[in-house]
Each structure stands twice: as structure tokens, then as C-alpha cells.
């Protein structure tokens, strides 16, 4: 399939999300689209998939103009899409989600569960995406939910053009390497791919050509051989430093002490199994591990959203057992959740309301029992400017923002109040390179003021860049603590249950595009998470 966009424009009232976009994707080509949060990438993809109607411009397939009144038309034309924000029905099984809109039926229109299961197994086997068709989607770790989305996009009629909107945002390094190989295999077989990503290494590893969009306009066409610095500068319109500048840590007293922490899921699985961890003031401890090994439950236990079955959590030497999340926040705990849609924002509330969400009872935002609207507006205006939140006004609902800008709202809220200890879970997930640089510098600044920082990230590059000490979690336990100059292969072995001095039989998280390490398929599956862990909120796109 040859796709051509001519002058494609989308306006929301007076706001122009995409402005006169021209773009061509050749058959069998992987065409990467780069841009900041709010640059218009997801809006562009949603027009191509029939979710949004263009204000003006044309979409041509194999030289013929087409018009889609909905995703069904796009699917019928051979276009599949993996959305940045998951479109799964949580209580449904994997097979049920995959067949939604393309149901397998028997006589008299009765649904065929057997055919639906077979479709999942066939596609999973063909593309190497291991899935249990009977698993309930809301019980799956977020990385596995991403696999469901990919299988869903590939399981309909012959997909000739596949749109991948930030598909690796929730995958581990090994899973990313696997996905990039799948993309290359699809392209070699003739499938055209539109690949939206903030991760420059991935683009360099797999793309055939790169289009850069900034504030709704195409600003550059680059070869994948372009340097990361060139790509980043084109995205944000200025020079970007990709290294994190920080001095050696000067740790002080123990600020967080977790001892023997155990959490048992409703299914009777120990998702945390006697975990021990200490974080001192003035240091960043990076928690590395394959998602689904207890990171979510640890973060939510520290905040008080999950009640441990046994063990102790102490902040500044005081056991916080029984303390509410509000009490812990008031005591100086900051929390950047991995799932911003569930734990980070109230999508229907305005940007201003979300920025003071955990302070609206406190001065100056409350006055004689009522909200001080002037103080709330001022904080919002200051935060929007400081954190470069792309919004039309402080009164705009967060549901209208891109995922990355919603993340900036959370970052602004947590960094605009006093903290003694900060849990930062996937703080830059879905955030562009310029914003990531800013968040990284703020995390280091927090450390340097004496705040204790627990960084939970599936991005090993982020762990290496920021951590003063790396703790590796596997199967609900800390299986090793290492220095930040420890080789990747060592951390990779720990992440899949091996020892520090074991041979390289276990999977190690390599850079995207690197050869798959030997016996990676032997890596044990992570335990099922008790909590739903869908990081990407269901609200808005990269408008």
C-alpha cells in the first residue's frame, strides 16, 4: 500500500492541531514520525484511522482519494492501528478484545469462542507475541496489554498499513528489540508502517525515513542515520543536551526503610515476597526490573493505596502502617504514578484543579473553608509556564491534553510543594525528549536538596543516567543492588532471575536493534500483577 497525505489539516475551533501536512509512506516502508508532546502526531494518525475528520486536505491510497467515516472503513481499507492510549475492555478476555468489531460467529450469528481463541493463538505464534487468549485484560501487566493491542491490529483483514502510536512506551528493552524485529519482518513482507516514537534510538534502529512535526507542521525530513542530537533539535526547535549532568551523591540518613514487605494478590500470588529496600536522603535509587515483578505494588504500598499482608514501611524512622495516603502526602511524600489515568489526574477536572489536587485544602488555595480561585489560577499559570504544559487555558480539562502534557501536569503538581521523599514511577513515559531532559534535571535537583528519590523505570537508559545506586527487583524481591557503572548484561541477568556472576544465558536488555542475546526465550515470564497497570490514560492524544 502506498499512502499519501496532501495538505491534511485539523482544527479544533480556533486551535490548529495539524497544519497542511504532506507525507508519503511507500509500500514496505517503515516511516517514523517524531515530534514533541502536543505536536499533532496522534491527531494525524486519528484522521488517517477515521477517528477524526480532516478539516481540509486529502488522504490517498495507491493514488486514489479515500474518505473514512470511522475506523471500520479504515480497517476495511487495510489499515490497522495500535493506539498510544489502550483501547481494551478491561473485564473482557484477550480473545474477546481481539475479536471486537470483527466477531467470529457460528450459524445464526452466535459468537464462536473457539474461533476467537484460535485467531489469537495463530497471530501470536506467527509474530512471536506470546498471549493467553483466556486471560482477563485488566489483570495483565501493561507490557502484555500492549501485546494484545498489536495482535488485535494484525488479526483482522489483511493489514497493508500498520500505524504504531508510541507502541514501545510500556515495553522492556528485550520486548522492544523483539518488536522492532517484528516491524522489520512485516515491512520486508510488504506491510507499510507508520511508527510514532519519542525514542530516538528506536527510530535510528528500524526506520527507513523520518518526518519531524513541530507544533502541527512538518519541519524536517531526515534519514535514520541522522544523529540523536539532530533529531532532538528538529523536534524541539533548539539544541538539546542528551546527557544528565550530576555530581556524585552525598547520601544522608535513611528516609525510606522497607523491611520484609509482602503483598498477596487476590489470586493468592505473592507479588511482593519479603522485599527489603532502603533509600537515603540525597540519593536516587533506581529500581530496575521487568514490569510485573512487584514494582507497581511497591509504589502503591508506599503511598498507602495497597495494604501489605506483612512487613514494615518507615519514612523518617516512623512506621506509616495505617496512615492514609493523604497523611503520607502531608508528611512530605511525593508520588508520580506509573498509571496517570488511574492515579495521577482526574481527567474531567481542569488543568488548574489537577495542579492543586493534593493541596486544595491548604493555604493559599483554601480560604475560610472555600477554594481561593485566584491562588489556584496563579499556581496554574506559573506551572504552565515553568513546565511548558501545552494547553489552551488553565480551565481546559486534562482529558483534552496529550498524554505527555497530562504527565507534565502531574510533574508540576508534585514538584511545586515541599517533599522529603519522592516515588517517581515511570516519570518520563510517553514524554518527549525535551520534557524528559527537564524532568531528569529536576529529579537531580531534588536529590541535591536532600530529597530521597526512588526511581522506578522500565527504561534502563534512564536508570543508568539518574541512579546513584541500582536495585534490581525480580519475583517480588530485591535480588541485587549494584553500582550505576555495572554492565548491562549483569543487570539483565538479575532482571530475569539469574545471578551477578552467572553466564550470559539469560536475556539482557540490549540497545534497540542489537542482536537478541542467546536463549532470551528461556527467560521466565514475570508473575501476574494484582493491580491493573495501564499507564496510558484513555484521554486525548497528541493534539
Automatic annotation (TrEMBL):
Residue ranges crossing the lipid bilayer per the database entry: none
Compositionally biased spans, kind Acidic residues: 532-543
GO molecular function, a single term: ATP binding
A Pfam family matched in the record: ABC_tran
PROSITE patterns to which the protein is assigned, alphabetical: ABC_TRANSPORTER_1, ABC_TRANSPORTER_2
Domain ABC transporter: 3-240, 256-500
InterPro entries assigned to the protein according to its UniProt record, in alphabetical order: AAA+_ATPase, ABC_carbohydrate_import_ATPase, ABC_transporter-like_ATP-bd, ABC_transporter-like_CS, P-loop_NTPase
Residue segments, region Disordered: 501-543
SUPFAM superfamilies for this protein: P-loop containing nucleoside triphosphate hydrolases
Keywords assigned: ATP-binding, Nucleotide-binding
Protein name: ABC transporter ATP-binding protein
Native organism: Glycomyces niveus
Amino acid at each position: 500500500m502506498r499512502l499519501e497525505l496532501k495538505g491534511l489539516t485539523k482544527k479544533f475551533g480556533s486551535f490548529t492541531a495539524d497544519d497542511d501536512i504532506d507525507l508519503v509512506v511507500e509500500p514496505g516502508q517503515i516511516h517514523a514520525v517524531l515530534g514533541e508532546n502536543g505536536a499533532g502526531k496522534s491527531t494525524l494518525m486519528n484522521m488517517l484511522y477515521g477517528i477524526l475528520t480532516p478539516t481540509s486536505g486529502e488522504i490517498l491510497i495507491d493514488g486514489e482519494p479515500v474518505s473514512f467515516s470511522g475506523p471500520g472503513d479504515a480497517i476495511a481499507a487495510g489499515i490497522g492501528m495500535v493506539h498510544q492510549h489502550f483501547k481494551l475492555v478491561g473485564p473482557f478476555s484477550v480473545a474477546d478484545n481481539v475479536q471486537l468489531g470483527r466477531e467470529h460467529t457460528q450459524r445464526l450469528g452466535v459468537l464462536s469462542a473457539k474461533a476467537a481463541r484460535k485467531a489469537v493463538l495463530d497471530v501470536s505464534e506467527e509474530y512471536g507475541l506470546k498471549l493467553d487468549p483466556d486471560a482477563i485484560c485488566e489483570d495483565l501487566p501493561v507490557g502484555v496489554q500492549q501485546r494484545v493491542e498489536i495482535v488485535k491490529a494484525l488479526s483482522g483483514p489483511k493489514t497493508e498499513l500498520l500505524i504504531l502510536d508510541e507502541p514501545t512506551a510500556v515495553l522492556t528493552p528485550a520486548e522492544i528489540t523483539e518488536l522492532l524485529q517484528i516491524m522489520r519482518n512485516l515491512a520486508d513482507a510488504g506491510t507499510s508502517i507508520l511508527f510514532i516514537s519519542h525514542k530516538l534510538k528506536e527510530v535510528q534502529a528500524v526506520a527507513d525515513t523520518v518526518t519531524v512535526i513541530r507544533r502541527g507542521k512538518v519541519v524536517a525530513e531526515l534519514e535514520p542515520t541522522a544523529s540523536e542530537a539532530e533529531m532532538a533539535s528538529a523536534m524541539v526547535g533548539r539544541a538539546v543536551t542528551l546527557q544528565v549532568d550530576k555530581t556524585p551523591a552525598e547520601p544522608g540518613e535513611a528516609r525510606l526503610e522497607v523491611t520484609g514487605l509482602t503483598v498477596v494478590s487476590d489470586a493468592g500470588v505473592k507479588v511482593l515476597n519479603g522485599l527489603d529496600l532502603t533509600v537515603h536522603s540525597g540519593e536516587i535509587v533506581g529500581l530496575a526490573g521487568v514490569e510485573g515483578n512487584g514494582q507497581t505494588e511497591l509504589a502503591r504500598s508506599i503511598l498507602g493505596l495497597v495494604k501489605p499482608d506483612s512487613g514494615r514501611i518507615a519514612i523518617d524512622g516512623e512506621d506509616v502502617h495505617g496512615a492514609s495516603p493523604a497523611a503520607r502526602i502531608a508528611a512530605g511524600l511525593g508520588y508520580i504514578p506509573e498509571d496517570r489515568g488511574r492515579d495521577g489526574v482526574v481527567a474531567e477536572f481542569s488543568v488548574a484543579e489537577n495542579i492543586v489536587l493534593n493541596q486544595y485544602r491548604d493555604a493559599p488555595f483554601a480560604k475560610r473553608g472555600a477554594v481561593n480561585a485566584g491562588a489556584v489560577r496563579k499556581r496554574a499559570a506559573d506551572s504552565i509556564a515553568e513546565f511548558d504544559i501545552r494547553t489552551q487555558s488553565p480551565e481546559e480539562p486534562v482529558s483534552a491534553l496529550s498524554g505527555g502534557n497530562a504527565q507534565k501536569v502531574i510533574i508540576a503538581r508534585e514538584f511545586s510543594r515541599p517533599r522529603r521523599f519522592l516515588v517517581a514511577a515511570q516519570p518520563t513515559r510517553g514524554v518527549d525528549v525535551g520534557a524528559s531532559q527537564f524532568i531528569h534535571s529536576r529529579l537531580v535537583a531534588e536529590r541535591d536538596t536532600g530529597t530521597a528519590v526512588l526511581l522506578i523505570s522500565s527504561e534502563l537508559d534512564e536508570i543508568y543516567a539518574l541512579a546513584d545506586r541500582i536495585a534490581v527487583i525480580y519475583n517480588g524481591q530485591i535480588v541485587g543492588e549494584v553500582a550505576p557503572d555495572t554492565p548491562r548484561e549483569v543487570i539483565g541477568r538479575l532482571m530475569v532471575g539469574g545471578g551477578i556472576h552467572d553466564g550470559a544465558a539469560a536475556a539482557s536488555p540490549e540497545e534497540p536493534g542489537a542482536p537478541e542475546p542467546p536463549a532470551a526465550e528461556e527467560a521466565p515470564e514475570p508473575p501476574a500483577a494484582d493491580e491493573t497497570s495501564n499507564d496510558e490514560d484513555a484521554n486525548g492524544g497528541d493534539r
